[in-house]
Amino acid sequence: MGRTLAEKVWEDHVVRRAEGEPDLLYIDLHLLHEVTSPQAFDGLRLSGRTVRRTDLTIATEDHNTPTLDIDKPIADPVSRTQLETLRKNCAEFGVRLHPLGDVEQGVVHVVGPQLGLTQPGTTVVCGDSHTSTHGAFGALAFGIGTSQVEHVLATQTLPLAPFRTMAITVEGELPDGVTAKDLILAVISRIGTGGGQGYVIEYRGSAIRNLSMEARMTVCNMSIEAGARAGMIAPDETTFEYLKGRPHAPSGDDWDAAVEYWKTLATDEDAVFDHEVYIDASALSPFVTWGTNPGQGAPLSASVPDPASFDDESDRHAAEKALEYMGLTAGQPLRDIAVDTVFVGSCTNGRIEDLRSAASILDGRRVAEGLRMLVVPGSVRVALQAIEEGLDKVFTAAGAEWRHAGCSMCLGMNPDQLAPGERSASTSNRNFEGRQGKGGRTHLVSPQVAAATAVLGHLASPADLDARTPVEA
Amino acid sequence: MEAFTTHTGRAVPLRRSNVDTDQIIPAHWLKKVTRNGFEDGLFEAWRKDPSFVLNHPEREGATVLVAGPDFGTGSSREHAVWALQNYGFKAVISSRFADIFRGNSLKNGLLTVILPQETVERLWKLVEADPAAEITVDLVGRQVRAEGVTAEFELNENARWRLLEGLDDISLTLQNEDAVSAYEAGRPSFKPRTLQG
Ligand code: SF4
C-alpha cells in the first residue's frame, strides 16, 4: 500500500523503533523563543547536559518584544527577564540567537521559512503550537512542551506516539477576494476545533496547489486551531521556487539532490487516509469569527447565529457564553459589527504578501475616524521589504500605525493589548477570551477584510468598499 | 532524575478533594524562568491561613503528601510537580490523580501512589493523631507501610522501572546514543544547518 506525505517524512526520521515503545524520531530543526525555553535550559544545567546539535537549533525573540521604542529598556520586568534569560542561555550553550534589534529577528514561524531553514521532508519542532506553519513546505512540524524542548536540546530526538492521517481536499478556484485565511477559517468551522485531534492533516487539491507559499503557511498555521497535531502540504515547484537562493537553502549539487528527494515525498496515489474531507473552493466567501474559539465562524454575509440553532448541547452552551463575552446578539448581521481596533500581523498573516494585500486596499483611503489600526510585520526582513516597496507609507498615510516586528497584539504578552470590552478585527489565529488583552473581543479575519474593516469601521470586505467609498483621486 | 526505590518520611494530611494545579501552584508563578524555587508558591493561597496544615510546625520536613481524591486536575503545567518537589515532597498518595498530573509526576521522579480511599482515611487518621508517625513508600515491594497499615499499590511496569533506575526520558534516549549517532551519520548533506561552516 502507498504511503502519505506525513508517513514518508515520519519513516525517514525513525532513529529507533521497538515493540511497545513510541518511535524515537530525529529532529532536523529546533526553533526556540523566550517563553518556553528557560526551564528547558535550566533542566540541562541541572543535569549537566549540553545542546547536542547547536547547528540544528536557532532562537529568536518575539512574544514579549515591544513594537515601539525598541531601543529603550523593556518596561515590563517579567518580559525583560525572559528576554535576558534567553540571551544568557543562548550565549552559554552556543545557540544562534536573533535578538530584538537584529535584522533577522521576528516571529519564530516567519523567521524559519524566510531564512530557508524550513525545508520539505524535514522534522521541525518548537515550543509553540503554531509550529504547524512550517508544514506548508512539506515538513512534519509540530509544537512541543517544555520538557520536550529540553529533550530535543539534549538529544536532537523525540519519542513520539503515532498519529492518524486526514486529507482535506480543496478543489476549484477561490473566488475573487477570498483568501487562504477565509479557507482555513471555513475548514475549522466545518470540522470543529477538535476535529483534527490526533491527526496530521494534509491539505491537497487544486485550490491548495494554486496557493503561494505564504498563503500555504497561513493555512497550515491554523491546523492547530482544528486540534490537529500538524498540517502539511506536498512540496512542488512553488515550494522549490520559494526556497531557491534563500540563505540556508541547499546550493549546487546539494540543491539537485534535495529537489530529487523532495519530489518523492508527495502522497502515493494508492495511499489511504484515515479520514477525508472535501471542500469546494468556489463556494467559499470572506469568513469571519463571531465567537471565542476559531471554530465559531461564519461567512461575512451571514448574521450572528442563534445559539438555539445548534443541535449539540455543548455547542449551544458554548455559543451562548461566546455571545455574552463578545457582546453580540443573535441575528445581528456580522457586517454591522463595529470594531475599535484592527490588527494586521502575526505568524498567520504577518508576511509580505499579507501586508501588500492590506496596503492595496488602504492605498488612497483613510482608516475610519477613531479607529486604531496596527500593522506589525512578522519579521524585520518583512518590514524592510515593505519599506522598500513603500507599503509603510501607504499605511501611515491612511492613518494606521506602522510598528516594529513581533507577535504584538496576537497575544497580550507585550504592551500591544486590547482594553477590556474593546473589539478588534485581527488577522491572527486565536479569538479566545482575553487572548489580545483582558476582556478584549476578537474577530479573526483575513488581511483584506481587516483593511476594509479599518476603512469602514465595521466588519467588511473589499467588495463593500468598492460600492461605498470610491478611492480618493 | 533521582532514582526512587523506597522512601520513609513524615506526612502531611491534606483533607481536600479536587485540588487543581492552580491551587498547587498559582498561574503567576509560571512567569519564572527556572525549574526550582517554586517551594514558596506551593499551595500559596491556602498557606496565607496560619491554620493550614502545611503551616503547622510539626509538619515541617514532611516528605509524603496524603491527599484527597482527584489530585492535580486542571492545567497541564509541570510547575505543579516541580513545586511539590522543590518543597521537599518525594511521594503523593491519593485515591485518584488527574491523568496529566500523574504523567508529569512520574516523568519528573515524584512518585504518585494510588490507594483506596479507605486506606487514605486510615493514613490520615494515623498521621493526624501522631504527627511524628512515618510512612514508608516502597517501590521495590510496591507497598505502602505505616503503623497498622500495609497496602499494596499498582504501577505500570515501565514507569516503575524508570523510577527505580532514575531514568527520565532524556537519559533513556541517551542510552540509545549509538542509534542516534548512526542516524546522524546517514543524514544527507542537503539538510538545513543553522550555523555555517
Ligand atoms: S504571532 Fe501569535 S500565534 Fe504566532 S508565535 Fe506569536 S503569539 Fe504565537
Instruction: Report the major sheet of chain A.
Output: 5 strands, parallel
In spatial order, strands of the major sheet of chain A run: 5-4-3-6-7
Total strands of chain B = 7
Q: Oligomer, anyone?
A: heterodimer
Number of helices of chain A: 17
GO molecular function (chain B): 3-isopropylmalate dehydratase activity
Keywords (chain B): Amino-acid biosynthesis, Branched-chain amino acid biosynthesis, Leucine biosynthesis, Lyase
Pathway (chain B): Amino-acid biosynthesis; L-leucine biosynthesis; L-leucine from 3-methyl-2-oxobutanoate: step 2/4
Family (chain B): Belongs to the LeuD family. LeuD type 1 subfamily.
Describe it for me?
The complex is a heterodimer of chains A (473) and B (197). By secondary structure, chain A is an alpha/beta fold. In chain A, 33% of the residues lie in helices and 16% in strands. In chain A, helix 2 links the parallel strand 3 and strand 4. Chain A is globular, with a radius of gyration of 22 Å. The mean pLDDT of chain A is 95. Chain B has 197 residues and is of the alpha/beta class. Helix content of chain B is 32%, strand content 17%. Chain B is built from 8 helices and 7 strands. Chain B has a 7-stranded mixed sheet. In chain B, helix 3 links the parallel strand 2 and strand 3. Classes of the chains: A alpha/beta (473), B alpha/beta (197). At the A-B interface, helix 2, helix 3, helix 5 and helix 10 of A face helix 7 and helix 8 of B. The structure holds iron/sulfur cluster. Iron/sulfur cluster binds next to helix 4 and helix 12 of chain A.
